[in-house]
Amino acid sequence: MKQLFLASTFFELVCLAAGIDSGVYDSTAAPALLGTDGVESSDELTGGSTDGGRAGDSSGAGDGSGNGSGSRERILLLSNNAAVLELTRPFATTPGADRLLARFDRVLDLNASVHPAHPSSWSPAHNDLPMVEAHLREKWGLGDDSIELVLESPQVNPAIALGRVFSRATIRVHADGLMSYGPTRNQIPLANGQRMSTLHYLPLVPGLEPRLLAEFGIVPVPLAPEAFRAVVREVGEATASELDEALDNDLPDSPWAFAVGQYLAALGLITGEEETALHVEMINEAAARGFSRVVFKPHPAAPPAQLEPLFDAAEKAGVELSILDIPILAEVVIDRLRPGLIVGGFSTALATAREIYEVPALTVGADMLLEAITPYQNSNRIPLTIIAEVCDGSAPVSHSSAEELSSLVAAVSYCMAPDVSRDLRGSAEAFLEQVFGGDDAAAAAGRFRRYFKRKRLTSLRLPGGNVDRFAPRQLVRRTGTLAVLAARRQQKRLATRSKSRRQH
């Protein structure tokens, strides 16, 4: 069997390595719709030691793979999905990546294989699929072996295209962030969905179950946090010299704040000026909480940031500011240097810092971002909703109740994608009725109104919208009146035409 792993970011590569180390990919996938729990009945999803899947493990001796996967050959497909490929650095060249790549038997460049098409727009015609499969099997040396796909972002290309090309392959999904807790944002081919087996995700929110691909019965399988931490620590050891050199080994013994940027302006979610203002707010919030040193890390995929306003804000706030502009994962910095606070917009790093490393996390600009993100069904809405509710700068509390957060996320998910979230209608109505019509409606509405648009609630006939204004009886009455008026106008036009003809 050939296992094809698709990855387009370094964080995804870390999560894949953690899954391999813990043994979750050692089983044989089977479509969940067949009632298989996502794996063949002869296999079990078991956790192993953090060294169980690494290259050189003696358990893989004799099969040529060197990774303890038996007869499976693990092949990594690297995809660069950046709009301008020439301006980005391949994440496979990121410091420490070589250790992660060693877990795979082979590494292939998907961009080169589909050139001149871009991976995000690669969509072979239906009649060409057998020819494309034969070509890729020969080019990638797959032979006639059975294929198992392990895909990220299954609702867009190139994941959709790979599922269509290898039409008999079973499909796993690995989700690397908070989007796994939201609904499937695009309709995917039914033939792909029917072959979905397991969803491997990093459990960043206690008590929340992923909603991604729930309409296909996919089985969520959480990654072991200790395996994730072990991989991050391994990358940190490989990049220690680069990190120490970038910060000049001068971080104070007292707590310091870590600010993480995103590429929101590049995605068109906000303007460049708004993103710069967001970064300035991060520094001011850190200073307001008593931190005298802030390290700001721009997102690796973001264009060059405007740094002068940040240094001006730091000087006014009496804060020493450092820029960490090297391609190192934010989690590596958190694991190795342990900041006293991490602050950002709605980066996944805030959730990993809080849940995986128990570092207080603070979001800034949540209200502005909730208003700016359009359309309502934008897939960033669920990550932003979770971060806005959870990351308030307080110390993480173990075993905290997630019932209210779960109800909120369910309601937002239904409003985003009612067609694929019909099972959430009842819970969404109950939550919104409690928020907008309960005994403490004023306080609850003030807290939760920012997550919902009145127009959206109205169109779905949910509490909190202008439901009374568009009640069914009134709608029928209004529609009937309009129909009568239209009929009368038509009669007048016909009468006028008839009279005109008689005159001529």
TrEMBL record:
Region (Disordered): 37-70
Biased composition regions of type Gly residues, renumbered to the chain: 49-69
Source organism superkingdom: Bacteria
Protein name: Uncharacterized protein
